[in-house]
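Deliverable D5.2: sample structural annotation.
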Amino acid sequence: MTILKDHNLTEHAYTDIIFDKRPCLDHDGMPVAGLYNAWIVLNNAQQFNSYTTRAVKEIILAFGEASNDRSVVAVIFTAVGDKAFCTGGNTKEYAEYYAGNPQEYSQYMRLFNDMVSAILKCEKPVVCRVNGMRIGGGQEIGMAADFTIASDLARFGQAGPKHGSAAIGGATDFLHLFVGIERAMASLTLCEPWTAHQACHLGLITDIAPVLKIEDRFIPNPLVVLDRFADEYGRVVFGAMKNGEELQKGKELMAKATIDLTMLDEAVNKLVAKLIHTFPNCTAKTLSEMRKKKLEHWDKNKESSREWLALNMMTEAKAGFKAFNEGPKNNREIDFVKLRQMLAEGAEWNEELLRTISPQYKTETV
């Protein structure tokens, strides 16, 4: 019997994520002997599965391990719980350690870049199982995956310009490939999230699955409009959030339901079952060719983006992350109008400016 070589860089005990191998299921839902899916699971539910510096390093190692494992058919990239897949970097860590420290954030962003690259170079199909919000950096690492199957309660979007950053950790490289330039522009600047139904309709994700259950019956997300309709401006809308009385009725129905991710898991398993019945090398080559469209932009921009993000930690990111981390629950954004007024008058980025625009300092003076 051939003694197989170990191509992993290092052995590692995972603490901030979960790395698990689970049997692949065939079309009939039965385990396939000797074949597995590698589950890489973000494990920070208390902070909406935001990734810490340690988690980033573990994700890099986990994707390498899954890629090298001969028995792994696909990688399932997901998170614990039912509230969030990932909301991006850990804002508490950003605010308390990286804010005002561009040299440190530059090193962190090198790790972040390596995490995105680890997903894009994985030699197995990567399925993003979206169990809740996929926002900010979570959206970016999710878009690096090859397929996305989402809970129909999930929401997708960016948050950078609202909190002191720019979505240049992959979103400006990837999003337009899914939805086109102008829709991408609106999402990246306005930071208005899409529902799972909108994301599927726009081509951002592969499929959705119902997760709300009343008694023994699954129901679709009652907070969104499931039919096409024309809004007050005559625009055709699909999957948008309801409003007014209809939204309230939807919330009342949700309060009676429980969340059950069984259908989400079934949809993921059915996708992988289809992948099992393909030539592995031909599939891998197809993935690598399709990923070139993402890599064309990612490899061109990731280093200059890292450098800009590091320097931005001295100004807007410092203000935005500290406001989000330290501000009152009902006000975690800086005073954007006041900031623009002060900059128009030639104000410098200093502590006086930060105290003037930041909600946490206003709270102190009340």
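Annotation notes: The two ends are 75 Å apart (CA to CA). The chain has two domains: 17-211+261-312, 327-365.
The annotation will be released with the project's public dataset once the embargo ends.
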